[in-house]
Amino acid sequence: MNSIIELDAANYGRHSIHGEDRVWSETNCYVDVLIELIHALRYDPVAGLAFTLSVDFEVDQWTFFKYQHRDLLEMYGMHIEELNPWVSLAEHVSEQVNNRRPVLVEVDSFFLPDTAGTSYKSDHVKSTIAVNEISIESEHMGYFHGQGYYHVDGSDFRDLFQLDGLVHDRMLPPYIELVKLLKQPEDIDADELLAQSIASLARQLQVLPRTNPFERFKERFEADLEWLMSEPIETFHGYSFATLRQYGACFELVETYLRWLQDRGETGLSDSIDAFKAITDSAKVYQFKLARTIARKKPLDSAPLDQMAELWHKGTEPLTRKYL
């Protein structure tokens, strides 16, 4: 068995970001995977969350936010490179893991047992996993996905890697990244980590949206609403994930990150923390209201988006004043 970190899927202790007390227990597949991988490597994933400040409304969706590769390298010694697939996916993953390199790969959730109740055996959904252990001979893989660490075996393993040769013929290879681990936890100095995190924060504040993203989102949302009410519930779920859930989960990470800075002596952050927490809570409530609106075909007041616009300004303005 090739493995990087010795882990027991049944007793894995997930990071507090994926705790039951969170408003949004999941963020997006890429960030969730890296949070747990960084955590399992015994680093602090919160230190690298400054990237959440620069999210924007991208015309028809909110930014699919991700850890910055520069931050992963500087803070944790995690150097990410794209992997060029030229033999079978299983062989590539096995080779890299055998050389102590976790592999980030897009796979079909239809074959991931941890998605039971959502997409497992019911829906073909692209999702990113981080492979930590694998044995092609034993048809076994240990992987990070979503909120935790899991195993896949047997026929699901074969289908996931398409080892029977039944599915790949008409499909392009997935996007794959390898992670070179250049540091050990004992190499991380707490003061240096804080300084690197604040430097990352300043970089993110330099690329804040030039105009309030909630004002632009409100305009598009009002235009979309009538169309959305005529669509099936599946369309609502996709729309909600790309909009309300995306920024709601993101701004909860902003709140978590700012509290982390505050706990390490940074001052003047309370107003921003309160503002981003309010956005997080409001987004969750508004998502439920939107779901009821779709089900009942009734109008929905967009005034809460004006309030979120004000909160975004109240949250970002003190930060730009302090760190730029």
Give a short summary of the structure.
It contains 10 helices and 7 strands. With 324 residues, the chain is of the alpha+beta class. The radius of gyration is 21 Å and the shape is globular.
Could you describe the 3D structure shown?
The chain has 324 residues and is of the alpha+beta class. The protein folds into 2 domains: 2-42 and 78-181, no CATH class; 190-323, no CATH class. Helices cover 46% and strands 13% of the residues. It has 10 helices and 7 strands. It has helices at residues 29-40, 69-76, 89-98, 154-161, 190-206, 213-229, 233-242, 244-263, 270-296, 303-323, and strands at residues 2-3, 78-82, 103-108, 126-135, 140-145, 148-153, 176-181. Strands 1, 2, 3, 4, 5, 6 and 7 form a 7-stranded antiparallel β-sheet that branches. Helix 5 (190-206) packs across helix 10 (303-323). It is globular and about 60 Å long. The termini are far apart. The mean pLDDT is 94.
SSE topology:
Blueprint: E1 2-3, H1 29-40, H2 69-76, E2 78-82, H3 89-98, E3 103-108, E4 126-135, E5 140-145, E6 148-153, H4 154-161, E7 176-181, H5 190-206, H6 213-229, H7 233-242, H8 244-263, H9 270-296, H10 303-323
Antiparallel strand pairs: 1-4, 2-7, 3-4, 3-7, 4-5, 5-6
Number of domains: 2
| Radius of gyration based on Cα positions | 21 Å
Total strands: 7
Indicate the structural class. Answer: alpha+beta
Q: Order of SSEs, N→C?
A: EHHEHEEEEHEHHHHHH
Overall pLDDT level = 94
Low-confidence segments, given as residue ranges, are none
| Amino- and carboxy-terminal Cα gap | 49 Å
Number of helices: 10
Main sheet makeup: 7 strands, antiparallel
**What fraction, in percent, of the residue positions are helical?**
40-55%
